[in-house]
C-alpha cells in the first residue's frame, strides 16, 4: 500500500509560526518596535537557519539587537547565513549561545574577534563564501527559514522601498519567501505609500519601524589626503603598464588607497598618455567619491553598483547618464546583478590582499584575522562560462602561454586579474609569505580547505612598488615563482630572488619595472592627484557630494 506523503509541511510550519506572531501584528503587517523580540521568539525555532541582512554598508541592526535579547531557553544554536558580520552584535549572538554556526562572506572590522571565537570553539564556521556563492546556496542548501532585512520605507501592506542601497535585499527575500519562509523588515520610516516598490508587499510578512535609521557605513570613501607618493607610482604603473597596454575598458576596482590613486590620476596622467576613451569607460563599482573627477572629466560612460555610498546619493541622482536610476529618479543598486556583471562582463579586476604566497595564492584570512572575501573571488577569477570577446580579454588570452596545453590551437581569452599591494603592509607585516596563514586557520576551524581568496592559476599580474609581474606569460610554476620573487621587495620571499633570473624575466617582458615602462619616478607624487582632499572632491562634484562628518575638516 502506497504511503501517504504530505507535500505542504513547509506551508503548515509557516502558518504555525505566523500564528504565534499574530497577536503582535496590527494595521496590516505592522508590529510595534517594542514587541520585536517577542515576535522573533514566536517565529524562530532552535537550530533554524536565519539570515540577518547586512553587507558592506547597510545593516538590519535593530533586528539583530532584538534577536540578541531573545530568551536562550527558547532560541539557541541558530545557523546564521548572512553576507557580512561587521557589527559587534553579530558575534554577541554566538557568545550568548543564540547562534552556533556561521556561513558568511565578509567580516570587516570583526575579523579579529571572529578568529578568536573560532579558536575558542564558540563559533562553528561553515565556509567563507563569495557573495554570489552564498546567494546561490540560499537557493540550494542554505535556504533561510527566517530572514531579517532592512529598507528605507515600508507601508502597512509590506511594500518596501530599498532605494539607493538595495544591495542584497532581493536575493534574500526571494530565497526565503518562495520556500515558505518568514521575512521581517525593519524600515526607517512607515509611510502611506512607498517612494518606489522595490520589494512587493506579498513577499514580506512583518514590517517594523525602527527607532532609528539603520546603520550605514561609508566603506568605499578614501580621503585623497592619505594617498602616498608610492601609491601614485603604483597607480602610474597600473595605467600605463596594464590598462593602457591591454586597452581595458570594462573593469572593477577593489577597496583601498591604491585603486583610489588610479581613479584620481585618470584626469591627469591618463589624459597625458592620451588614454581617454580608450580605457576605464564602464565599471561594476560602488559609487566611489574618488571617481568624481574622472566622471566630471568625461572618462566614465556607465557604472552599475553593488550598493550605495554614504554622501553620494544626490551626486548619483544628478548623473543619470552614468548611474542606473529608477523611474523615481533615485539610484538602484543590486549586489547580485553587479557581482554577475563583475564576473562575466568585466575584463579586469584589480584589488589588494593581506597575504600572497610564493605560488601566487592570496587570502585575507590570517591566523588572527578572518576578514572574508566579499565579492573579490568572483571578479578575481577567469569566468569559464564567458563566451563573448573583447580586445583586452583576447590579448590576455593570446599571451597565456600554457592555454594551448589544454585547448590545442583553439583561441580563447582570459580575464586580467591583478593583485596590487606594497611588499610590506600595515605595521610592516610582509605581504609575501612562504605559506599562507589560511593553512593554520583551516586547521583551527577544522575546514576541509584553506580559505583562499584568489587562486594562483587565476592571477595574471602582481603589481608592487618594485614593478609588475606578468604571471600569465610564464611557462611553468618555477618561472612564476621567480617572477613573484622579483616583485616581492625585501620580504623573505623577495630576498630569495636571483638577479640573473630577474634580469632574464625583464628581458622577456615578464617583469617590468617603472623604468622598463618609461615612467619617471620623480613625477610620482601627489601633485598628479586630480583632487588632493575631500574638500576638492566636493568642489569637483559642484557641491552634490555630501561627505560624512568624519571626513570633513573644514
TrEMBL record:
InterPro entries: MadA, NagB/RpiA_transferase-like. Gene3D superfamilies: Glutaconate Coenzyme A-transferase. Pfam families: Mal_decarbox_Al (PF16957). SUPFAM superfamilies: NagB/RpiA/CoA transferase-like. One of its GO terms (molecular function) is transferase activity. This is Malonate decarboxylase, alpha subunit.
Amino acid at each position: 500500500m502506497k504511503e501517504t506523503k504530505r507535500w505542504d509541511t513547509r506551508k503548515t510550519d509557516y502558518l504555525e509560526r505566523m500564528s504565534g506572531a499574530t497577536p503582535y501584528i496590527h494595521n496590516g503587517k505592522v508590529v510595534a518596535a517594542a514587541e520585536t523580540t517577542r515576535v522573533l521568539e514566536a517565529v524562530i525555532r532552535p537550530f533554524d537557519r536565519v539570515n540577518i541582512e547586512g553587507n558592506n554598508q547597510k545593516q538590519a541592526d535593530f533586528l539583530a539587537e532584538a534577536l540578541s535579547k531573545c530568551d536562550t531557553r527558547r532560541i539557541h544554536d541558530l545557523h546564521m547565513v548572512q553576507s557580512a558580520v561587521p557589527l559587534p552584535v553579530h558575534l554577541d549572538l554566538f557568545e550568548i549561545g543564540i547562534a552556533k554556526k556561521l556561513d558568511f562572506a565578509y567580516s570587516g572590522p570583526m575579523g579579529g574577534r571572529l578568529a578568536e571565537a573560532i579558536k575558542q570553539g564558540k563559533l562553528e564556521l561553515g565556509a567563507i563564501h563569495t557573495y554570489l556563492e552564498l546567494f546561490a546556496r540560499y537557493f540550494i542548501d542554505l535556504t533561510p527559514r527566517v530572514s531579517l532585512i532592512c529598507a528605507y520605507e515600508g507601508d502597512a501592506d509590506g511594500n518596501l522601498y530599498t532605494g539607493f542601497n538595495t544591495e542584497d535585499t532581493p536575493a534574500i527575500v526571494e530565497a526565503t519567501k518562495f520556500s515558505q519562509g518568514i521575512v521581517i523588515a525593519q524600515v526607517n520610516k512607515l509611510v502611506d505609500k512607498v517612494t518606489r516598490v522595490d520589494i512587493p508587499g506579498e513577499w514580506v510578512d512583518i514590517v517594523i519601524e525602527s527607532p532609528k535609521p539603520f546603520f550605514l557605513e561609508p566603506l568605499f570613501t578614501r580621503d585623497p589626503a592619505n594617498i602616498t607618493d608610492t601609491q601614485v607610482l603604483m597607480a602610474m604603473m597600473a595605467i600605463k603598464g596594464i590598462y593602457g597596454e591591454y586597452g581595458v575598458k570594462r573593469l572593477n576596482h577593489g577597496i583601498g588607497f591604491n585603486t583610489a590613486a588610479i581613479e584620481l590620476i585618470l584626469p591627469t596622467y591618463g589624459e597625458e598618455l592620451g588614454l581617454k576613451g580608450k580605457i576605464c569607460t564602464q565599471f561594476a563599482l560602488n559609487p566611489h567619491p574618488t571617481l568624481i573627477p574622472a566622471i566630471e572629466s568625461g572618462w566614465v560612460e556607465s557604472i552599475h553598483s553593488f550598493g550605495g555610498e554614504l554622501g553620494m546619493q544626490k551626486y548619483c541622482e544628478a548623473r543619470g547618464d552614468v548611474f542606473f536610476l529608477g523611474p523615481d529618479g533615485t539610484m538602484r543598486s543590486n549586489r547580485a546583478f553587479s557581482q554577475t556583471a563583475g564576473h562575466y562582463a568585466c575584463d579586469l579586476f584589480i584589488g589588494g590582499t593581506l597575504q600572497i604566497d610564493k605560488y601566487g595564492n592570496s587570502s585575507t584570512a590570517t591566523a588572527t584575522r578572518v576578514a572574508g572575501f566579499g565579492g573579490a573571488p568572483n571578479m578575481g577569477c577567469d569566468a569559464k562560462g564567458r563566451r563573448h570577446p573583447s580586445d583586452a580579454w583576447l590579448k590576455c588570452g593570446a599571451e597565456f602561454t600554457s592555454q594551448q596545453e589544454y585547448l590545442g590551437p583553439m583561441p580563447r581569452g582570459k580575464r586580467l586579474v591583478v593583485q596590487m599591494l606594497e611588499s610590506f603592509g600595515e605595521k610592516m607585516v610582509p605581504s609575501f609569505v612562504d605559506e599562507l596563514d589560511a593553512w593554520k586557520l583551516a586547521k583551527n576551524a577544522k575546514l576541509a580547505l584553506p580559505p583562499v581568496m584568489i587562486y594562483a592559476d587565476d592571477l595574471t599580474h602582481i603589481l608592487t612598488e618594485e614593478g609588475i609581474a606578468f604571471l600569465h606569460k610564464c611557462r611553468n610554476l618555477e618561472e612564476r615563482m621567480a617572477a613573484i620573487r622579483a616583485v616581492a621587495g625585501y620580504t623573505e620571499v623577495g630576498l630569495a630572488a636571483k638577479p640573473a633570473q630577474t634580469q632574464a624575466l625583464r628581458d622577456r617582458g615578464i617583469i617590468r619595472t617603472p623604468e622598463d615602462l618609461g615612467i619617471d619616478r620623480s613625477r610620482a607624487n601627489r601633485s598628479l592627484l586630480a583632487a588632493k582632499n575631500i574638500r576638492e572632491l566636493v568642489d569637483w562634484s559642484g557641491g552634490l557630494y555630501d561627505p560624512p562628518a568624519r571626513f570633513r575638516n573644514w
